[in-house]
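Worked Example 4.2. Consider the chain below.
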Amino acid sequence: MRIPLKIQGVTDVNHDASFSLLIVTDEKEERQIAIMVDASMRHEFALRRGKYIGDEKSRRISTEMLERTLPETLSAVIKYMTDLELAVIIVSIYDGQYRAILEDEKTGTAFPIRVSDGILLAYADQHIPLYVEDSLWQHQSTKYMGEEATGVSLPLNTLTIGMLKSAMQKCIDEEKYELAEQFKKEIERRNR
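Applying the procedure from the previous section yields the following structure tokens:
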């Protein structure tokens, strides 16, 4: 079974410009998963959400450029030249990274795609639905607190090794040893 998803937006993490969190929820906006995206992908979503940076001329150029970007162009080509019924499906998580496929729903033919690229394609083309496998959703999703939330819960398995090590050290420095032990166990689990 697959859970249909809605894209809520991208949020910064602790003023760290190197990555942000892309928030997707179920259709009822009750639960969410947070997917790490790099600065360039954050920019791509900001463009499509109308959050341009710069003067009026820059905004106009950005709007014109958006019509010629790969996701929008690919979407137009697919509609024009094929009868594919595509869907983006988040299927698993491995080593801190969500994994996704681009699937033709008619034939079941699937191709791996970087999860952020798949979500961007679904965002660019409202005819391409976005789903997550039910079992993954059950294990990874957390309660959605709305757009005004001041924090986001993240399962440990969505953090990179570097983030885990940094968080573990911070816990040690703050004498939060039980929490530091949880980070240590996740690092050891991945290094097996």
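The mean pLDDT is 86. The longest strand covers residues 2-13. Compare this with Example 4.1 before moving on.
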